[in-house]
């Protein structure tokens, strides 16, 4: 007993030294992450935050990606598309959706423009870079679900003039443009004839084609028709979680071959079948690394889907985005890989879309 007791001080010292070393390592990782975010551009390509901010009454404490949380998490650019629920495919419903979406887009523009010291609307990749240098948050506008376009290409130009730079072609149900992935009725067998015209018009104007929510055949049709890279703004890996919204290995390879990017999302619904308490930043990073290992680090990024089902343990809102950097550093990612993941890859795609327009 005396011999055991004599070892206790040494054992406690070793444990203390181990804990201290671990704490020091963690502090070093966080310091490195902070310095990295000072110089790179961090982009979140999908949230539903716009609709939250333009409500008549909004409690910012409950909003996941408001300006303050984005700044705290060191996010330089956030996409604020207008989400549009799928409605009937008749002229009156299409017209109402168009008018409602226009009004909401004008409202979020006004919200941002009323706060010029904090944020600016970004229309180009160079705007995002310029705003970073000026310590301003960039907000990019778009539409989630092309339903309000109806069958009128002139509306695409109207939305572009309002600031739209990305359109997610559909949501969970088929529309006039294409078949969806979640509840497809296989109305068109991919893109509709109008959808093909729409993709060409988006290329002509310089609007990013987003195939998150779209069916596999819709994705392949877009890849075949588009003269610019095609993206998925908020999707995950089917091989890790076999959800119909996630992407198969073949789909990931096809997007990468076209020069596009897969922006991994953060909701448990897309990440894992495990219980909510077991899904964390590590789970998210497993999807990111899967894509990196499959096609290369040049084709992966992040689209959180905050305020629309995104978030997990350890990443409850945008204020904690740097924790992803810490986890990837812990896994051995280089500064260059992280620069590409956080924004470099997407800026490349955005410039390619702009150049295709020219």
Number of folding domains?
1
The value of Rg in angstroms is: 22 Å
Mean pLDDT across residues: 94
For this structure, what is the CATH class? Answer: Alpha Beta
Order of helices and strands: HEHHEHEHEHEHEHEHEHHEHH
| Unreliable stretches covering 5 or more consecutive residues | none
Largest beta-sheet details: 9 strands, parallel
* Strand residue content: 5-15%
Distance between the termini: 82 Å
Helix count, DSSP H or I runs of 4 or more residues: 13
CATH third-level topology = TIM Barrel
Considering DSSP H and I runs of 4 or more, what fraction of the residues is helical? 40-55%
Q: Which CATH architecture?
A: Alpha-Beta Barrel
- Structural class determined from secondary elements: alpha/beta
CATH homologous superfamily, by name? Metal-dependent hydrolases
The total count of strands amounts to 9
Specify the overall morphology: globular
Write the SSE topology.
Blueprint: H1 2-39, E1 43-44, H2 49-53, H3 67-72, E2 77-83, H4 91-113, E3 119-121, H5 125-133, E4 137-144, H6 154-162, E5 164-168, H7 193-205, E6 208-210, H8 216-225, E7 230-235, H9 249-257, E8 262-264, H10 268-271, H11 281-295, E9 300-302, H12 322-330, H13 335-357
Parallel strand pairs: 1-2, 2-4, 3-4, 4-5, 5-6, 6-7, 7-8, 8-9
Describe this structure in words.
There is one protein chain. With 358 residues, this protein is of the alpha/beta class. It has one domain (42-357): Metal-dependent hydrolases (TIM Barrel, Alpha-Beta Barrel). Helices cover 48% and strands 11% of the residues. The chain has 13 helices and nine strands. Strands 1, 2, 3, 4, 5, 6, 7, 8 and 9 form a nine-stranded parallel β-sheet that branches. Strand 5 (164-168), helix 7 and strand 6 (208-210) form a beta-alpha-beta unit. Helix 1 (2-39) packs across helix 12 (322-330). It is globular and about 80 Å long. The chain starts with a helix and ends with a helix.
